[in-house]
Amino acid sequence: MMNRKNTILKSVALAGALTATGAVATTAHADTVATSTAATSATTTDQQLANMQSAHAATESAAAASNAAVMSEATTSANSQIADLNNQIQTRQASDAAMQQASQASAIASVNQAATSATAAENASYSQAVASQTAANDAALKSAQSTIVTEQQKNQETAQENADYQNQAGNLDSEHNATLNKLDQALKNNTDGTNAAIQKEISRQKADEQGAINQAAKNLDSQISAADTEVGKAQQTVNADQDVVNAKDAANKAANQAVKNAQDKLSDAQDALKKAEANQPVVNTIDAPAEYINVWKTYYETKKPGTWTLSQQQFPELYARLQKAEQEAKKNNVYKEDPAAKQIKVTLNDNGTLSHDDVIFATQYAANLINPIREAVGTNPYKITNASIDVAQDVENGYRKDNWNAWTNAHDLKLLDQVANNWGTDIVTESWAGDGSFGSLSYDGDNNTWTHNYTNLTRDDLQRGIYNAVEALLFECAKGNSSNGHTTDLLGVRIGKNAKSSSVIGSDLLGVGFDYGKGNEAANQFNVGGFHFNSISDATSPHIQYLASHNYVIKAANPNSKVNQPGYKDQIAIPSANHDDQIKQLQAAVATDTQALNDAKSKASTTASELKSAQDKLASDQAKLSQAQKRVTELRTNKENTLKAMATDPMQSPAIKNLQAKLAQARVDHDNGVKAEEAQYAAKTKDLKTKHEAKLAAIAAQPTSLAELQSQLQAKLDTLKAQHEAKLKQITDDANAKIEKIKNQKVADPEIDKLNAQIAQIKSDLAKKQQELDNNYQALKAKNQAEYDALAKKLHESDKAVVNGNSNQYKTADGKTVVMAGGKTNSHSGNLSAMQNGETGDVTTVKVEPGTSSVEMTREAYKAQQAKLPQTGNSNSTALIALGAIASMFGFGLVAKKKESYSFRRNNEV
């Protein structure tokens, strides 16, 4: 296997909720750290699968070795060809370099010759220009007497020019203003005439429109009157239907009352029976309806990665079914007092936490409540180790040390992370439920506050608190305000049954703690506590073993971790619930009352059916009435809309729009004329000013002395010199640039390009061969996997039938046939509601046919044996749960390879 970089992304997610009943509130926080489906090693019945895997491994190994040999030979050949082509390229490059050097020398000589000629021409041109300018200067000096003027003459010429300029500018302004006034008057004349034509057209259109509206209103009123008549007829039919429904409803209510009376009578008989059983020990269970189990099975077996909750938004159909089932469960599950447990005191430490022995008892009691539901859903039951108990105690002690108020602050993230590090495990998962029934309460009417008291408590109080906490966490969406983060945590369904996951989850080993203190307060309740349901990963779980075997760095799988040390990893037994023998026969009165109840229900069913038929007819006729009423409404609306549509805006008519377009065009013509005039005026003004400034400059430039004239003449010679030097520099710069370009030119050799193309093709062919061999190898692996999956499915079809009770026999690995024989036992394994109602449970045992060693096994034991077959799962999710006044938070842990990083998510952050 190729080395891959490993990282662990780890975070703790939290959830909190607060519900209040009367003065006592129960709040639950659920950690959304991913959970897994554990899988055990295959039983001996899977020997055929092991043999097939060995054969597949041999074929895959042979294919890999063959591929390596083929690629080695192909690579050697390719390298030899590439080396030969590179030698040819080097030879041509040396030849090209020699040719390039000779070509560059000739080109540079040509450039230098051209530069020399250009320089000579410029020098000659400059000499001629200097000679001409010198002659002109000499002539100017000879006629200096006529050129030189006085300052007085210059001032006179300047004054005359300024006067001429002002006069011309004034004339230009007058012409400009006259043109603008003419354009404005033309616009006014066009606007006035067109507006008058618009008003005349509007008056004509309004007169024609009103006549058409009056006629249309008359026609529509006639249709509305006919439709009103149909509404009256339909209303009479509905009234008659309602009378029938009322009569049927009365009969149905009477039948339902008869059912209630029969139920009350049966309840009385059953209460009498319970009193006769008063000496039997009390057994509390949490009975989940079949629909509740089916919903979670469906979620667990079909969910895809990307969520760890069953929210209403993501799973609307499952959520609706679950909510209804949980509402039923809430009604059916009520804690029953345990007189025997009242005789055992609960010990609370000075810091407000449970003692070590009570933590063990609390964990065992919680596991007995939860595990039957986990098994029914298809997930592995919780186990308990010394490490999981000590982790729970470290958590409850840490909350008190930090004076942490979980009611308002949710989970203590830093503490949970610290405990995980101290124990050498990846993460400590926590679900938290606020105490609503463990301690006693005292009420202060003056301040409207409740204070919790945790003295003189018994195991019965502790059982009640745990029972109600587990019930709140398992049936949290009954009121429709939860995403079930608590439930997915306790049921272990966050990773789907048939998915792979790189997440580290902690839903294997359970520890239940409790803490309270003065710092804990919420909703006018003080000194209140809460239960911590903490869990960690099991090093022997299939999911942790899967991650470890795929090169992920997993602390929980490290034998040197504290949680895996001798003593700490030892399991603590979870004693079975104390189920006494159920009463085998009901009293005759109970049987009679049961039959009476059934008869009353049958009659109620009939009256309900008749009521339903009457209600259906009423609904049908009401629908017809609604249609008739809708028709009237539609006609009235149609009248309103029709008349509105006819009352058109004259301003939108083509005639008006044409006149308005004429107005707009007049404005455009005016604006364009103004714009053209302004442009022409600006151009004339600019030209006049330019000429004026040129004349002033010429007057000012006239010399007033011989020295000034000589200076002006010398300046012309200096300008010629500067221009000459600039041209010479440009000739030199151009020549240097051309020479540099010649030196940088590269020789184009098509033969070298062809050789490089051959090298690229050889490399491409080698890569394609590698890809082809890889594809063939992956196809072989896929074929082997398909054969393995098909055999696995075939081998375990009979197992599923036996587990589900659909078959009474199966084959063992040595070819023996095992027959499931019916029998009675005083132990119930699945139908908890049946136990509560006093029914006897049938449990099937297994016996080997004559001639073999005798074996007896309950069907539930057989299920437990089959549960050891491999299972895998995967899921990811974050969610926010808010119940009452307490905000909740989730966290999660993701495993990548060789590297650890941490992130925390609060609220709805992703």
UniProtKB/TrEMBL annotation:
Signal peptide bounds = 1-25
A Pfam family found in this protein is: Gram_pos_anchor
What sequence ranges are listed for the domain Gram-positive cocci surface proteins LPxTG? 864-900
Q: Where are the transmembrane segments?
A: 878-896
Q: Per its UniProt record, what InterPro entries does this chain match?
A: LPXTG_anchor, Surf_Exclu_SEC10/PgrA, UBA_autophagy_assoc_protein
Q: Which residues form a coiled coil?
A: 141-175, 245-279, 583-645, 706-783
Q: Which UniProt keywords apply?
A: Cell wall, Coiled coil, Membrane, Peptidoglycan-anchor, Secreted, Signal, Transmembrane, Transmembrane helix
What is the name of the protein in this document? SEC10/PgrA surface exclusion domain-containing protein
Organism classification: Bacteria, Bacillati, Bacillota, Bacilli, Lactobacillales
